[in-house]
Design goal:
Helix content of chain B: under 10%
Oligomer: heterodimer
Shape of chain A: globular
Strand content of chain A: over 45%
Radius of gyration of chain B: 14 Å
Number of strands of chain B: 11
Number of helices of chain A: 0
Order of helices and strands of chain A: EEEEEEEEEEE
Strand content of chain B: over 45%
Largest interface: A-B, 29 and 28 residues
Number of helices of chain B: 0
Helix content of chain A: under 10%
Distance between the termini of chain B: 38 Å
Number of strands of chain A: 11
Shape of chain B: globular
Order of helices and strands of chain B: EEEEEEEEEEE
Structural class of chain A: mainly beta
Radius of gyration of chain A: 14 Å
Largest sheet of chain A: 7 strands, mixed
């Protein structure tokens, strides 16, 4: 299967702990995106990378959040000092370079974070 | 500021009939629109898209219509099947600038297709 993969699928942690999620995009996709989805809402944009460069960060991404894509392949999203409000589904997506006006993003299965 | 809105939280249709899901947007900079389908505990799955230079795009049982003047798009599913039961999200992308590529999603519509 060559789709977007995310690990772990589920994470339960205690408030104040740090957590790290990993995303492996579709091979040769140079754009990688992170979104967060809470119950009853659509996914909300967090940040995106083109190759290893982080091009935009949402205001939703507080200082406790950091994302990296060191070699332009997989990406990690770290949340420090987790809070109960961080409980959500964290989604990763990837896409090809925008050679035209179509730039479809393909999503992974997500990581469900529960902060106790 | 909800730039993409799906005003119907849920829709129930009979198998074999047409399902019509609606989406409204406010940002005139949006140039590309997508529909995703999502099952519980899974990520969104891409269904169909349309660029702002078109008013209709069709793929099998799925057709998306775009009315730019009304800032409205709709997804038609004909005929509806029980396996179509899921949450459907409308998403939009703005042209140009540093936000190029970022998708803005609606809140979703839960579609239930009854056998």
């Amino acid at each position: 299967d060559t789709g977007v993969s995310q690990n772990p699928r589920h994470k339960i942690t205690k408030r104040g702990q740090n957590v790290t999620f990993r995303c492996d995009p579709i091979s040769e996709h140079n754009r990688l995106y992170w979104y967060r989805q809470t119950l009853g809402q659509g996914p909300e944009f967090l940040t995106y990378f083109q190759n290893e460069a982080q091009l935009e960060k949402s205001r939703l991404l507080s200082d406790r959040f950091s994302a990296e894509r060191p070699k332009g392949s997989f990406s990690t999203l770290e949340i420090q000092r987790t809070e109960q409000g961080d409980s959500a589904m964290y989604l990763c997506a990837s896409s090809r370079p925008p050679g035209g006006i179509t730039d479809t993003q393909y999503f992974g299965p997500g990581t469900r974070l529960t902060v106790l | 500021d909800q730039q993409v809105k799906q005003n119907s939280p849920s829709l129930s249709v009979q198998e074999g009939r047409i399902s019509i899901l609606n989406c409204d947007y406010t940002n005139s900079m949006f140039d590309y629109f997508l529909w995703y389908k999502k099952y519980p505990a899974e990520g969104p799955t891409f269904l169909i898209s349309i660029s702002s230079i078109k008013d209709k795009n069709e793929d099998g049982r799925f057709t998306v219509f775009l009315n730019k003047s009304a800032k409205h798009l709709s997804l038609h599913i004909v005929p509806s099947q029980p396996g179509d039961s899921a949450v459907y999200f409308c998403a939009a992308r703005a042209a140009g600038g540093t936000s190029y590529g970022k998708l803005t999603f609606g809140q979703g519509t839960i579609l239930t297709v009854h056998p």
